[in-house]
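As noted in the main text, all predictions were made from sequence alone. Below is one such record, for ABC transmembrane type-1 domain-containing protein.
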Amino acid sequence: MRNFKGTRYLPFTIFFLGLLGLIEWLVRQKVIPHFIIPAPSGVFHALRDNSVSLLGQHLPMTLFETFLGFSLALLIGVGLALLMYLFPFFETLFYPFILISQTIPIIALSPIFILWFGYTIWSKVGMGFLLAFFPIVIGLYDGLKETDSEAVELFLTMGASRWTILKELQWPSAMPNFFSGLKLSVIYAMVGATIGEWLGASQGLGYYTRRMSGNLQAEGVFAAIVLLSISGMIFFGMITLIETYYFRWRKERKK
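Prediction:
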């Protein structure tokens, strides 16, 4: 985690704080209407005044939907990636479907999910799953395919079984691509859940932003966006932390 220590992100911090100060001044001077871009202080007040509703009701629902969508994408995505890699027939069978699923705008599929699952939590989980699924499958599958062929031949020459090669060589070599896919996937799962809430829900940050937008309360909209952004960064950081410990464990194991 050394990349997150010290002064590495000091330029960003200074720039970000300066940008917030500039926006605050422009809004207070009425150069920018507050209903277009609210003052940061107004967003803070919206977070404070609506903390019970946001933190106690809407944020937990969005996080729960994101967790379910991401978990399903992880379980099915890993299984399908291994299946396609180990058995080329399934690669020719499923790979086109995986690509097609990503060419259709999620907003166009949302009415279908609502038709199937209604306005229940599963329509949001389904959209989160659909967005999160692709980076996991492709990340792991491409990582497995990029395994050094000479290393595989060496393992075969030493009499290693297919399972041993997968476990000791191919799986570890695929982990950089896999973790990169996971980092994208967890963010996409939140995006999908939020879109689902926007289109039809009674709870969640997506629903909250739609309600605030309908009332022309930009401060409330940006307050929800801030929570979504913070939550996404926390999820991203958790995956990064797991990645760091995994590679540290692999390194120590080889000693």
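Residues 42 and 219 are 6 Å apart (CA to CA). The chain is about 85% helix and 0% strand. These features were considered when defining construct boundaries for the mutagenesis experiments described in Section 2.9.
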